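note to self — DONT lose this again. spent like an hour looking for the file last time. sequence + predicted structure for the chain T wanted, 242 res
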Amino acid sequence: MSKPNISIFFPVYNDERTVQAVTEKALAFGKECAGLFEVIIINDCSPDNSGKIADTLALTYSNVRVIHHPKNLGYGAAVKSGLGAAQYEYVCFTDGDDEYDMEEFKKLIKLKDYYDLIITFRYKKIYSNKRIFISYIYNRLLRWIFRTNFRDISTGLRLVRKDILADINLITDSPFIGAELTIKTMLKGYRVGEVGIQTFPRKFGQGASTSFKNIMRTIKDMRKVYREIFSDHYDLPKNRQR
């Protein structure tokens, strides 16, 4: 059986201590599991040396390339840059802080013929009680507001078929991007699957997804997507009006 062609990408922001390790893990995964593959690093104008390290890696490995944002645009914007730049049939993306392991993509690859988007849920969470509580409330809220049953809609490791992305208009730049992609993929009639994965504690710093700034950005984007999806004109059948 031939191996699939895969694009692998991850955003970096203050990830100078992990960008090389994550890149090397992505290369190892691609060599083992893909026919053709590429690794794309999205530097969201990181103030540390993440961008410089990424450029060095791109010079060292022919199938690594870097996209630099001229200013910090946010996690969601970095994900959209990666999705837009990916050239192969299947797109695997994760975070640049090494909390998720590239080996988990092997589980997702097994299901690529059954789903168009495969998201993941963390069945063992190695986080602070505060972050676990915020995640619990967030996912409960999204299940209620958007009428879904997804366990952990924004976990930062997933696989999507490249060809469905042209049918999905993503409008958010915050960490809400994962939820937006999942909800809109479901509403477009594509198959969404879930796989349980492990997570690992950060070896330095703190994650920014639950910072006050990102929480406010997420709430703003949640409201924006809600207004879009529940408007009177979103994705109506042809020749139908309300």
